[in-house]
Amino acid sequence: MFSYGDGFTMSAKKDGLVNIGGLLGMRNEQLYRACGNMGIIYEGFITYGGLAGRDLAALAQGLLESTELPYLKARIDQVEYLGNKLIEYGIPIQKPIGGHAVFVDALNFLTHVPREEYPAQTLAIELYKESGVRGVEIGTLLADRDPETRKDRFPKLELLRLAIPRRTYSYKHLDYVAAALKNIFDRREEIKSGLEIVWESEILRHFTILLKKK
User: Fold this and answer.
1) Looking at 9-13, 50-54, 146-150, 198-202, which range is the least confident one?
2) Beta-strand relationship, 136-138 and 101-105
3) Which helix (H) or strand (E) holds 97?
4) Strand (E) positions, 100-207?
5) CA 82/CA 78 separation, integer angstroms
6) Engineered SS bond to 106: which of 91, 120, 151, 210, CB 3.0-4.6 Å?
């Protein structure tokens, strides 16, 4: 597969079965050396990139285990289970159900919250208040502002991502997540306003932002 690409990046925290780390690879040696220099400045030497030895060992083992078919089947089955549970409750999600997360369609969930008030982020906060479950907005906040007009960019989709940690949740945990979303869905008509920005960072604002209720 790598023979068809000029380079690749990988965040190993998702499916590499480690808590930290990732990989950066490229075919062009000159580009590799330039990136290696930047890595040394900001992360650490190119052979470890700021990672501790235990993290490198965990990554090496995780890359092997994450390709085992029983593990992959169990992982995908959990995601499918949660997605189908939400469909059973009438909650709008993106289809087909993916491999590492379920994406809730916030525009069709919180129909009374305007796009300008960040419905997916509003839903993420409602879910956290309801259950302590943390999802992440994949929508207008993530799309950031137009670099010239500095106005919000509105992507086609406004989603709440429910990424499922590997080898962590039981099916009862997933039932709890689904029940929490159902509780919010049942009272969705009461949620008529969203959020406004108080402060945001100039770069990657969805990581560092202060919001308040509209």
Assistant:
1) 9-13
2) unpaired
3) none
4) 101-105, 136-138, 159-163, 195-200
5) 6
6) 120
